[in-house]
Amino acid sequence: MKEPIVIHTEDDYERAQLRVKELGRPPEGSAEEKEQQALAEAMLAWELRHDEADDRG
């Protein structure tokens, strides 16, 4: 994984969810575990932005 994971749309979010399921429980310290952590962080950031937008309008 060379670039940070950024989620811009609901489709991106759904693809991220599918990828997390594909990865399952990767071995600790593996590239897959790092990818899963990056996906989780990106998904959380998207959820927070989405919730803020809902609160505003």
Would you kindly provide a written description of the structure presented here, covering whatever features stand out?
- The chain is 70% helix and 0% strand.
- It has 57 residues and is an all-alpha fold.
- The radius of gyration is 13 Å and the shape is elongated.
- The mean pLDDT is 90.
Write the layout of secondary structure elements.
Layout: H1 10-23, H2 31-56
Mean pLDDT: 90
Give the topology string: H per helix, E per strand.
Answer: HH
Major sheet: none
Number of strands: 0
Helical percentage = over 70%
Low-pLDDT residue intervals, each spanning 5 or more residues: none
Query: Could you say which structural class the secondary elements and strand pairing correspond to?
Result: mainly alpha
Total of helices: 2
The geometry reads as elongated
Overall radius of gyration: 13 Å
Report how far apart the termini are: 36 Å
Strand percentage: under 5%
Quaternary structure classification: single chain
Task: Offer a few descriptive terms.
57 residues, mainly alpha
Quick description:
By secondary structure, this protein is mostly helical.
